Known about the structure:
By secondary structure, the chain is an alpha+beta fold. The protein has two domains: 2-144, no CATH class; 184-342, Histidine kinase-like ATPase, C-terminal domain (Heat Shock Protein 90). Helix content is 65%, strand content 13%. A hairpin with a 2-residue loop joins β4 (273-281) and β5 (284-292). α5 runs antiparallel to α6 (186-203) and α5 crosses α9 (298-319). The protein is rod-shaped. The chain starts with a helix and ends with a strand.
Amino acid sequence: MKFFLRKHLLLLLHISFWVIYGFFNLYNISHYNSLKVALIITFELLFFNMAICYFNYFILLPKFIGKYKITPYLLKLIIPIVLVVGGRLWFESYISEVFSQEMSYNYEITLKRSFQLTMGTLFMLFFGSLLRFTTEWLVLEKKRQELEKQQMAAELKFLRAQINPHFLFNTLNNLYYLAYTKSDNTPKVVDRLAQMMRYMLIDGSQRLVPLKREITYMQHYIDLEKIRLSQKAEITFKVIGAVEPLVIAPFIFMTFLENAFKHGINTGDNDSWVRIFIEVKEKECLFKLGNSKGLKKQNEFSKSSGVGLQNVRRRLELSYANQYRLDILDEVDFYEVNLHLNLS
C-alpha cells in the first residue's frame, strides 16, 4: 500500500484536488439551484477548467520550462483563456434558458461575470502551473538523490577496495614466511585466509552485513596475526552484548585493527599489547581499541596511519552521518580509539 501511494502520489494529488474542488462548487451551487442544475453547472465548470489546466500543464509549460521566455508563454495563453471564458458564458446562458424554472435567478452575460470567470480561469492556470513546477522539482530531486546514492556507493566501493589489497598483501607475505619455515600452522592460515577471502568477495561488497559475521572476520584476522607473531604479546579481544540481530557497514573497524598490529607490536618486545573491546547495548555499538607503540616514535605512527584514518572517517560520514562519534587518543607510548555507532 505504501509503495502504491509513493508511486502514484502525483496522480492521487490531482484526483483529490478535482474531487474536492467539484464537491465544494456543487455544494455552493445547490443552494441557489436544483440538484440537477447544480450537477450540470459543476460538470461544466470542471470540464472547462480541467481542459485549460491540462492544456497548459502538458503542452504549453513543458515548452517554456527552463527557457525563461515569459512573454511568448503569456501570449500563447490568451487564446485558450478567451475560448474558455467565452465557452463558459455561452454554456451558462444556454443552461439558464433551458432550466429557467429551476433556477432562482436570471442569468445575464455582463462585464462583471466575464471578469469573474477570467479571474477564476487565471487562478486555475496558476494552480496548474504551480503543480507542474512542483512535479518538475520532485523529478529533479529524485534524480539528484539517485545520483548521490550512486556516487556514495561508488565511493564506498572504492574506499573498501583500498582496504582489501593491503590486507591480502600482508597475509600472503605471512603465508609465504610460514610455508618457507615449514610451520605446522600453514594449513590453519590457509583455512582462515579462505574464509576471510570468501567474506571479502561475497559479504564485503554489500552495503550492510551482519555484525556477527564482521566480528568473526575480525577474529580470523587476529588469529592470523597471533600465528605470525613469534613473541609473546598481549592480545585480547572481547565482545559483550547481543550482536545477532544487528548489521553494520563491512570493514568499518579494520583500519584501526590493522594499524594496531602494524604499529602496536614490535618484534622482540614482549611488553607490546593490543586490546580490542566491542560492547552492544540495544542498537548502540561501542568499539574500543588500544595498542602500545613500543619503540616507534609518535610522529612516525601518526604519519603512517594518517591515510587509513582519513579513509575510515570518510566511510563513517557516508555510512553513519550524524550517527557516530569517533574519539582518538594519540599519546607517546599508546594509541586508543573509541568509536560509538548507532546501528539503527
